[in-house]
Design brief:
The protein is an alpha/beta fold. It contains 29 helices and 24 strands.
Length: about 850
């Protein structure tokens, strides 16, 4: 809807659309439908299988593995090339399959959006208009439609006539209370509240729902031109790198730089010191492959895919983007809306107060009598949320009085009146509505009027919705009562309402706090209403701030909570700040989420409306329930079967489980690989022959890689699940450097022992013995590293894999397969020498690990 049309009169809008109050003819509607297209939002794009696989190649290690595989093929190292390229294919296939399964699960959860609208159409120019139901997709600009209670607004419309119309706009603005609408003929051109087009009384937008009243409106925008669909442009923007992407890419590129330097250094050093040139190229490539954690894409994808499958099966949580599971495990701030997440979209009676401010059940009784007979005698018998709350709290009260008539609610008066039979020959008017409007019609002294206004303001300031109740008794008459009779009333008191809490929300919030996650509420509601709901949920004494004030100060906003203002060795903790930010526009939510990320937090955002789409994309991980609007659901990384904070807790645990296993794999693999590469480079320079043949390096890597698959099935220790799991590149590089050097020392000690043991006439000619001994030692040290650096509670799959790896290291060299690889059985003394080296290496590794744990716990 164009901004200039938002301030136009109804007549100007009709003329601009070349239509009138009688609507379009069938021929005009058909022509416009052919010209502008169906009234449907843009369909989400689903990537093809080849495109999914190509996207997987954007992973740095996958891309490097592909490059090394091609280089191996160029130097005719076919075994290395086949294995590497197979790993690349498996990694890409697993990731593509996981994303395909997630999309298929989402499609199964997606609700089919359909329905019809009541439209005025004419058979011809002179024919009278006839109201009929047409599919929502067939609406076109210029159609005149009718709206009633329970209808969804099918397009962006300008009201022509309205009576008692209120609409729910939560899906667009986040406001929980219905918004009054009216067909103002000359609307104000400016919005003094700064709330934008959504608060203009004469406009309704696609996606809103009619709460009460009726209206006739003209369609001004359909399909991709509605504000509902305009958010698709925001959804189409490229998402910034998530926490998982940033951490893995940081580690990856640090190692990639070292890997790219390794082959040239090996070639130049061997050419300069040993006179060996291109014949050492296969060995150089094998060394570079040895540093690469080849199984990283497979381990990561397997861990995340297993966790995603478990979540979908056990908790009905669909993970659309697998890395989002790791992001969930790293989340330390969860942003969410209030309505539908912490509170239900309905009020409940909080209290009934007499004029003195004390509890008075009579006030609730009169309010319920008015609600009952307004519902029974009203022109449109649909109870609004406050009526339902009154009748639920008061019980059956209608039978006490005989209903005479009703003056329905009107947005201009902000009142509703029921007329019931009183004593003999009398009628009682029961008027309910906004405190200012009811008090203005009561016989009160000025001081008493001000006192009661202050009482209502106090209750409203405490975050409660306030309904004033007044009555007037007069002589019975046959002529119907009208709004003109609402005067000379006796003030009865106030009924206050609070938002109904979502069952289990308080317990779920405590569970998330126990997981080290702080909660931030971003809502379009009034600050006092939002703060009251949070206090009712036990979030503590909180103060809500208005988004505009917070953003004007330019502060990074975070949640005040158990960990407020703290920092840990693992990274920044939440900064002191408000728990609740109210009056948030969609752009405000996105800016606040971006500010939290800029401050170093990993942010999750739970939303379900069009107004939440910018923030869903700005967060590290976007979460939406199945009942969210299509656009929000397609934008989200994780989709919940229900808007349940408990399900988020399960997803966070699954993400941390996967992240802990991935972190253990990286620590073990990179430490061991770095030590082996350092030792091989030094040995290659000191020995007159290659310290290990390329095929032996490949066989060693294959054995280690096969054992590392156990990390995908490991169970981490409980401490890893109690706090956010973040892969921090600098901490990882310090860790692998320290333990890699220790591993290199063990390898070089083995080299020294072998050099001494092989001293003799054919010392340096017995290459097979040297290769076999070092092959065995490498697998034994790698098995020790897997077992001692894992840090889990019980050996489990890792212990069994380490034992199998050690057995392969001892049994493969003397076997026929070992002979085919250029190895041989070791003389009896050699296992004893290797046992001595292992006997020194294992205590040293355990001591260094214990020192590391004291200084920087995992």
């Amino acid at each position: 809807m164009a901004s200039d049309g938002e301030a136009a009169t109804a007549l100007q809008v009709l003329r601009g659309l070349d239509t009138g109050p009688r609507g379009l003819t069938e021929a005009e509607a058909a022509a416009r439908l052919a010209a502008v297209g169906e009234n449907t939002p843009p369909l989400p794009h689903t990537a093809s299988w080849p495109l999914r696989c190509l996207r997987a190649l954007r992973d740095p290690f996958t891309a490097v593995l592909l490059t090394l595989g091609l280089v191996s093929a160029l130097v005719a190292s076919w075994g290395t090339a086949v294995v590497i390229l197979a790993l690349v294919a498996v990694s890409c296939g697993l990731r593509a399959a996981g994303e395909h399964r997630a999309d298929r699960s989402l499609a199964a959860l997606r609700e089919l959006v359909g329905g019809t609208a009541t439209v005025l159409r004419r058979a011809g120019e002179e024919a009278p208009p006839r109201a009929r139901e047409v599919p929502v997709a067939d609406l076109v600009p210029g159609d005149v439609i009718r709206l009633g209670p329970g209808d969804l607004v099918p397009a962006d419309v300008r009201l022509l006539r309205a009576r008692g119309l209120t609409v729910h706009q939560a899906v667009l603005t986040g406001e929980s209370a219905p918004v009054a609408k009216a067909a103002a003929d000359v609307p104000e051109p400016d919005d003094p509240a700064g709330a934008g087009a959504f608060q203009r009384p004469h406009l309704c937008f696609q996606g809103s729902g009619v709460a009460s009243g009726s209206a006739t409106a003209v369609v001004v925008a359909t399909g991709e031109r509605t504000r509902f669909a305009a958010a698709q442009g925001t959804a189409g923007r490229r998402r910034e790198a998530s926490a998982f992407d940033r951490s893995v890419h940081g580690i990856s590129w640090a190692l990639i730089r070292f890997m790219l330097l390794t082959p040239p250094l090996v070639l130049m050093a061997n050419a300069a010191l040993r006179g060996r040139g291109l014949e050492t190229l296969p060995f150089a490539v094998a060394v570079a492959v040895g540093l690469t954690p080849e199984m990283l894409p497979v381990i990561v994808t397997t861990c995340l895919a297993r966790a995603a499958a478990l979540l979908a099966r056990a908790h009905r949580v669909v993970v659309r983007r697998l890395p989002a599971l790791h992001d969930l495990g790293a989340v330390d701030v969860l942003c969410l809306d209030k309505t539908g997440t912490l509170t239900q979209d309905r009020p409940v009676v909080a209290d009934a107060l007499g004029p003195d401010g004390h509890a008075d059940p009579d006030v609730l009784r009169w309010a319920a009598v008015g609600a009952w007979w307004n519902l029974q005698l009203g022109e449109l018998p649909t109870a609004d949320a406050l009526d339902e709350a009154l009748l639920t709290a008061a019980g059956p009260v209608g039978e006490e009085y005989d209903g005479i008539g009703a003056v329905p609610f009107d947005a201009g008066r902000r009142l509703a009146t029921a007329v019931v039979a009183g004593g003999l020959g009398t009628h009682v008017l029961v008027t309910r509505g906004a405190a200012e409007d009811v008090l203005a019609r009561c016989d009160l002294a000025p001081a008493e009027h001000e006192r009661l206004l202050a009482l209502a303001a106090r209750e409203s300031g405490a975050g409660l919705r306030v309904l004033a109740v007044a009555t007037a008794e007069g002589p019975a008459r046959i002529r119907p009562r009208t709004a003109a009779d609402e005067h000379g009333l006796t003030f009865r008191g106030l009924v206050t309402f609070r938002d109904a809490l979502v069952p289990g929300a308080a317990e779920a919030l405590r569970g998330l706090a126990g997981q080290g996650i702080t909660i931030m509420v971003l809502t379009g509601d009034h600050p006092a209403t939002a703060a009251r709901a949070c206090r009712d949920l036990g979030l503590g004494p909180v103060e809500a701030e208005v988004a505009a004030d917070v953003l004007r100060r330019g502060e990074h906003v975070a949640v005040a909570g158990p960990r407020a203002g703290t920092a840990t060795p693992e990274g920044p903790g939440p900064h002191p700040g408000p728990v609740v930010v109210a009056r948030c526009t969609p752009e405000d939510k996105a800016r606040i989420v971006g500010g939290l990320r800029a401050a170093g937090h990993t942010v999750g955002f739970l939303g379900d409306g069009v107004n939440d789409v910018p923030a869903l994309r700005a967060a590290d991980v976007g979460i939406a329930p199945r009942t969210a609007v299509d656009l929000a659901r397609e934008t989200a990384d994780v989709v919940l079967a229900a808007k349940d904070l408990g399900a988020i807790g399960h997803a966070v645990t699954a993400g941390r489980h996967s992240s802990a296993n991935i972190a253990s794999y990286l620590r073990v693999t990179l430490s061991s690989n770095l030590g082996n590469v350092i030792a091989m480079l030094l040995a290659g320079l000191l020995l007159p022959f290659l310290p290990m043949l390329p095929v032996q390096v490949l066989a060693q890597n294959l054995c280690f890689d096969a054992a590392q698959l156990a990390f995908a099935y490991d169970r981490p220790r409980a401490a890893a699940l109690r706090r956010p799991t973040v892969l921090r590149p600098r901490a990882f590089l310090r860790f692998i450097t320290g333990f890699g050097v220790l591993n290199a020392v063990a390898d070089l000690a083995t080299f020294g022992v072998l050099a001494l043991a092989l001293r003799g006439p054919d010392a340096l000619d017995d290459q097979a013995v040297f290769h076999s001994a070092w092959f065995t030692e490498n697998l034994l040290t790698q098995a020790l590293v897997m077992f001692l650096l894992r840090g889990g509670p019980r050996p489990g799959p890792i212990g069994r894999a380490a034992a199998a790896l050690a057995a392969v290291g001892l049994l493969l060299p003397p076997s026929p397969l070992g002979a085919a690889l250029g190895m041989t059985g070791l003389p009896p003394a050699y296992p004893l020498l290797l046992a001595a080296v292992m006997g020194l290496y294992a205590p040293a590794l355990r001591a260094v690990r214990a020192r590391h744990d004291r200084r920087r716990p995992w």
